[in-house]
Amino acid sequence: MDKYNKLNSDPVLKKILATTQSELADKIKNIQDDIKYFFMKKEMVTFGYFVEKMDVASKYGHNISVRCYRDGFSQYTEFYKTLTKLLSSYGEYSKGVIDDGKKTKFKQNLFYHDLHLALMKYYPVTGDLKNSDGNDCSLYKGRFEIDTSKGINNCSVYIDDELIDSGVNYNDAVRKMEYFFSVIKKPVSGTQVIKKINAETDSNGKLVRVVGMADVIAMPDALFRWLEIPVSNEDYDQVNTEFDVSLERLKKFNFINDDYFSVSYSYKETLKKTSEIFNDKLTKSYFEKAKKGINEEWELDHGKINSYNTIMDGIKKELQMTLDEFSQRYNTINSNYDNMLRVITTMISELTQELKGFLRI
């Protein structure tokens, strides 16, 4: 092609083709037209491939975001309804007034106990994020899987068990996994994310699957403080330290003497650390004291009752803010995606018409 381009740009040849009418000149012009047509068709094919891959990428990113916000919004709505209903029923724990109406008896520990039980449906006590009843307690459970069983240049990518892409190079698949986790960071205030990676091998020690997991967990700070559950953002950082190490290891795999065991070991350590931290925080909470004094009746004056009501109003406001943010983000991601599709569709249509026009010329 270099020789052809040099010959084609030769001023002498250009002058001959422009001024000479002969069979040879016509053949040269025909060959030039055929070569131009070939490259135009090649551009069309390349453009089509680009559009196809762009569509996969846009759907890929959109699907993750929508599932995270949609499922999170749905689960958090139930969480919100359960807790706000209980907080609003505080007056039902009253057992009458005393001291000429200056004080009111409350089964305060029973109220705390019931709040704890409601919260425990969304509180992990096992490494795989099950609650005390053995049920999943995540607002959203995301799973990203790279199937490497067919070779490093023929990987398949799954999100929540749905095939998203196939025939992908391993390094590209890991970059997609990075994007998956970047989408599911801390989606809204009042929640946190626990991330894990596991590497699975066959009986011969060959890597066959890499699985990334992300769980969005409710973390109502104000309610935790009131019930003396000392879970903090630092605890989540501690749980996620193994994830960061494992992700860096994945990037360096070359399928020659790789240490797959180190990734699976880190995964098990994450399970262990998660269980230990959340159970330890639970034992330090007010729950056991509330359970022991469940039948006690506290004598509260108006000032104390007003103080408790102010605390509960703050908790409900925080829960409402999280719910509103979930709703806003979910609606925004759908709106942005619709706008993006319109822009892409218009761009594709315009470029296709231009290319068709070139081909007709």
TrEMBL record:
SUPFAM superfamilies: IpaD-like. InterPro entries: BipD-like_sf. This is Cell invasion protein SipD. It comes from Morganella morganii (Proteus morganii).
